[in-house]
Design goal:
Number of domains: 2
Number of strands: 8
Number of helices: 11
Largest sheet: 8 strands, parallel, barrel
Shape: globular
Structural class: alpha/beta
Strand content: 15-25%
Bound molecules: erythose-4-phosphate
CATH superfamily of the largest domain: Aldolase class I
Strand order of the largest sheet: 1-2-3-4-5-6-7-8
Distance between the termini: 41 Å
Helix content: 40-55%
Radius of gyration: 21 Å
Length: 227
């Protein structure tokens, strides 16, 4: 499983990139505008934090396939390193994904609500598809079931496109798409931090430390004998 940060908050990205096993950062127009600053400058700073190797996802805004392709090329010129262009699965978006694939420009098909949207995007050459798990749940569907169907369809048809599950409101949803076979997920910082938060862990750690230091002295660690 590969994990991405779904945020453009530089402080959060810097923290999570240092402490967690992160493969990159995903953005969308709503995430970018939240930071309220020139977007290319912001994306360049994100690139500076995560380095050139990790993937940075940027969404196109245009209505036509040609506009989307032009935006994709512009973004790739402006932002160094591994960039993936996010393209919504409209008809124009599907055409854009085909054109980008012909030019070997990696794309992610976004705003996916059904497994068939994902199938079309994969057949068009998308590198990733992003089922919107929580938004599907909010429509009384099951984001996890849609994700599981996509995984199954891609396996049946030997499609190399990966699932990058998106739109989460809690850890359980992320847990369930992992079990459903999603290769990757993008998650907001507050939810990522809850992945390992469990009170018993901190309690156990405190007891271990207390027992050790009762015998070897307060403030002592395994470095007791080191110089
Ligand atoms: C990915 O970047 C998606 O756009 C994002 O996960 C959507 O999340 P939301 O439904 O919480 O806005």
């Amino acid at each position: 499983m590969r994990l991405y940060i779904d945020s453009a908050d530089l402080k959060e990205i810097a923290f999570l990139n240092e402490y967690y096993p992160i493969s990159g950062v995903t953005t969308n127009p709503s995430i970018i505008v939240k930071e309220n600053r020139p977007y290319l400058e912001l994306l360049t700073e994100i690139r500076g934090i995560i380095g050139e190797e990790k993937e940075l996802f940027v969404q196109v805004i245009g209505d036509t396939a040609e506009e989307m392709v032009d935006e994709a090329k512009f973004i790739n010129q402006q932002i160094s390193g591994n960039v993936v262009v996010k393209v919504p699965v409209t008809e124009e978006g599907l055409k854009a994904i085909k054109l980008l694939s012909e030019e070997n420009i990696p794309s992610l098909a976004t705003t996916i609500y059904t497994s068939f949207q994902a199938l079309m995007a994969a057949m068009a050459g998308a590198k990733y598809v992003a089922p919107y798990v929580n938004r599907i749940d909010n429509l009384t569907g099951s984001g996890v079931n849609v994700t599981a169907e996509i995984v199954e369809l891609f396996a049946s048809y030997h499609l190399s496109t990966e699932v990058l599950a998106a739109s989460f409101k809690n850890v359980q949803q992320v847990h369930d798409v992992c079990l459903a076979g999603a290769q990757t997920a993008t998650v907001a910082p507050d939810i990522i931090k809850k992945f390992i938060a469990f009170p018993s862990t901190s309690q156990d750690v405190a007891v271990f430390k207390k027992e050790w230091q009762n015998v070897y002295g307060s403030d002592k660690t395994n470095l007791i004998n080191s110089k």
